[in-house]
Amino acid sequence: MPELILKNVFKRYDNKKKNKNKETLPFAVNDLSLRCKEGEFVGILGPSGCGKTTTLRMVAGLEAITAGDIYIDDVKINDLEPSEREIGLAFEDYALYPPLNVYDNIAFNLRAKGVSEEEITRRVNTIAPLMKVDTLLKAKPVGLSGGQKQRVNIARAIVREPKILLLDEPLSHLDGKMRQVMREEIKRLHKDIKATTIIVTHDQLEAMSLADRIAIMKDGVLQQFGTPLEIYDDPANEFVAGFIGEPPMNLLTVSIRKKVDEFFFVFAGESISIPVPKRYYRVVSDGMKVRLGVRPNDVFIGSKDSKGSDVEIAVFEGLGEERRLHFRVGEEFLTLITTAKIMYAPGDRIKLEVLSEKTHLFDINTGDKIKTE
Ligand code: ADP
Ligand code: MG
């Protein structure tokens, strides 16, 4: 299976009609470089309008590239027709042909390419059980459920035996349980067919559970490209930190304060103060302001005599498996998650402990991670 390489790819749409953003961005895709390794499963993740679909459409050849190059291995494909690219596509709105039954829908592109009926039968009969549509081959699209249509849609993409498979929000029309099932199927499918695959999604769980590596985009710009754990544990900037994780990472403005020869993070309102981990000593200074990130499960309720900060609960949520406690910190909130079977009410006070070793620091102006080496 081939590598797929995007080098400094830009896309500018000349008609701005479709643009829903308040401020018009100069580029829908802005200097995107990505290298998807052989057989790799890559997720492109980001909010609506960040350029995910545009990226896939350029790879597929459905949209012209404004600048930059796309390669499959060492072949530049910028000017190849879509049909010459050996790419399979399944886009979110599954446009199955209503008059054709499932078999003919799956066979459609093969017939268009002049593949023999014998070969078509062989391929459809291989793919149909893989996608669990073998009992539906005679059915018309109108009678199919959303999940079934999506299976046919994906079958239609992979029956061409593509070297590269592009999936654009293939699960977005499905409801919770069905999404879960299809997610497992796509994972298995990728193992079976081994095509270098890109899945586009705005659902972080989908990306985290499926992809070997995730490319996170915002406003057409790549923010970070890494494994799900790298992105979760070591976000490159405040945007990624806040985008990955449910509930999101706490992100608060804090001041650095030096006492004798130790540094502390002092939260707004001064109610919380925690030691700065030693690894940050080289990059902090007395009086500096930073954005501090800490995940809600790295914040704890301390015992009564703990050294933690004395704080008041603003909001208490009992959510079955877990409890969420929210504390007001200046203008912002800090959230804690625990599975302990505790009950509190707003106004109750607790001792709050923050695992300072688990904090992430971001530049107050740029939002970029503050590097320690
Ligand atoms: P995503 O798939 O991440 O939601 P898109 O790639 O569809 O984002 O869109 C990226 C940006 O390009 C958006 O601002 C969108 O409005 C704009 N856009 C997408 N398609 C067109 C088009 N055909 N013409 C003009 N602008 C477009
Ligand atoms: Mg899209």
Domains (count): 2
Tell me the major beta sheet.
Answer: 6 strands, mixed
Ligands = adenosine-5'-diphosphate, magnesium ion
Strand content: 25-35%
The total count of helices amounts to: 8
- Class of the largest domain, according to the CATH hierarchy? Alpha Beta
Strand order of the largest sheet: 6-7-8-3-9-10
Using only C-alpha atoms, the radius of gyration works out to 25 Å
Give the N-to-C terminal Cα separation.
Answer: 37 Å
Number of strands: 20
CATH superfamily of the largest domain: P-loop containing nucleotide triphosphate hydrolases
Question: What percentage of residues falls in helices of 4 or more residues?
Answer: 10-25%
Please sum up the structure shown.
This protein has helices spanning 52-60, 102-112, 117-130, 146-158, 176-193, 204-210, 228-233, 238-243, and strands at residues 4-11, 29-36, 41-45, 67-72, 75-76, 87-90, 164-168, 196-201, 213-218, 221-226, 250-259, 262-267, 273-275, 289-294, 299-302, 309-319, 322-329, 332-338, 349-354, 360-362. By secondary structure, it is an alpha+beta fold. The longest helix is centred in the middle third of the chain and has 18 residues, at 176-193.
